[in-house]
Amino acid sequence: MIDTHAHLDFAEFDPDRDTLVQQMLEQGISNAIIPGVAPALWQRQLAIARQYGFYYALGIHPWYCPLKNDVDISELKLLINSRRQDHALVAIGECGLDKLRQDTWPFQQAWLEAQLQLADELGLPVILHCVRAHEELLALLSRHSPSRRGVIHGFYGAPELAARYFRLGYRLGIGGLLLNEDAKKLHLTVQHLPLDAFILETDSPAMAPKSAIDRRNTPLLIAQIVAKMANLQKKSSVLISERLSENAAQLFEL
To answer: Which keywords label this protein (predicted)?
Structure first.
């Protein structure tokens, strides 16, 4: 199995990263994708990805986009082009839209559009963050989808919304929110959409389920997510893990 979205470069994992990676391997989690979030953090992210053999993406998260409409992603483009022979680089992102961040909201769409264009130019999929901005994101993707499409990370919406993304060619990243008993819309989404629509993720260290004792999320949650999906889909956990691993491998060309 692979955790397709885990910020294992974040400081929350500094005390026990070696131990966690060993535990992941023992539980059959063979790898993870570390998304990029901001230029100031890219070099640390790359160093940790290289140290542990993780996959990674590079991008500018909507929380961290500069407060200007004069978009310049030359630094991102230069870094990616310098690493084009690195097979661990699998996507552009994490990028997207987030209405909860009112300070950056006026500038987010311009920075996202530039990254979507870059993904199309480079033939890479995108890892997309979206909070309370699905209509805006769907409209943008209808006009500017990269050829390789990508994933709507941390999806928690209803089947109708999920189907709209899936029809555009995007997969949905399913994580720890699925384990919340009150996540009724997400449960229905997993029940009613085909397995081809989904990939597994945790968004570690964030998005721990409400039942978690430790508020720091980790990729070790993957087995519980698989079990919950198996229950909702009335299929075996083995089938779920195999199919969703295949989905991730196909999307990111792993």
So the answer is: Hydrolase
User: For residues 128 and 168, what is the distance between their CA atoms, to the nearest angstrom?
Assistant: 14
Query: Strand ranges (DSSP E) for 79-125?
Result: 89-98
Tell me: the pLDDT tens digits for 27-70? 999 999 999 999 999 999 999 999 999 999 999 999 999 998 89
* pLDDT tens profile 100-128: 999 999 999 999 999 999 999 999 999 99
How is residue 222 annotated by DSSP? H
Q: Rounded to whole angstroms, how far apart are CA atoms 196 and 60?
A: 27
The β-bridge relationship of strands 171-174 and 198-200 is parallel
Q: What contacts 215, CB < 8 A, 6 or more positions away?
A: 208
d(CA 196, CA 7): 24
For 142, 145, 148, the CA distances from 112, given in Å and listed in that order, are 14, 11, 16
Q: Would you give the end-to-end CA distance of the chain in angstroms? A: 12
Tokens of 12: 């929350």
Query: Comparing C-alpha atoms, which of 124, 199, 119, 192 is closest to residue 155?
Result: 199
Question: Is 95 in contact with 59 (CB distance < 8 Å)?
Answer: yes
* Residues linked to residue 92 through DSSP beta bridges, in sequence order: 58, 126
The residue count for the chain:
254
pTM value > 0.90:
yes
User: Rounded to the nearest 10 degrees, what angle do helices 159-167 and 134-144 cross at?
Assistant: 10
